[in-house]
Specification:
Blueprint (H helix, E strand, L loop, with lengths): L6 E3 L21 H9 L1 E3 L7 H18 L17 H4 L2 H7 L5
Antiparallel strand pairs: 1-2
Length: 103
């Protein structure tokens, strides 16, 4: 998170766990919402994310998935990197070239 690579959590908490929403949203056992909030993240697409930095992100995620026992296509029934899209495993410059964009 702190490497400045544009990787952040998509949600800090599940909805009922945000302090500012207490009293507005029912606090309940929502295991799926909490699991979703805990395992989703965002990946930046800034020009600062060059191929070298993308490789750091990719290898870090690959290492985490290996530690948790999630292979590329068997974790929660979907591909771990963009649901199997070719651009998901490509570097930013490769993804841009494949989509017809500049690079």
């Amino acid at each position: 998170w702190r490497r400045g690579l544009g990787v952040t959590r998509l949600f800090a908490h599940a909805l009922p766990d945000y302090p500012q929403l207490r009293g507005r949203i029912e606090s309940a056992a929502l295991p799926h919402a909490r699991a979703f909030a805990a395992r989703t993240l965002t990946l930046g697409n800034s020009a600062w994310l060059d191929d070298m930095r993308f490789e750091i992100v990719r290898t870090t995620l690959q290492g985490v998935l290996a530690q948790t026992g999630c292979a590329q296509r068997d974790c929660h029934g979907a591909a771990s990197a963009g649901h199997g899209t070719p651009a998901a495993s490509a570097s930013p410059s490769q993804a841009s070239a494949e989509s017809g964009g500049g690079g």
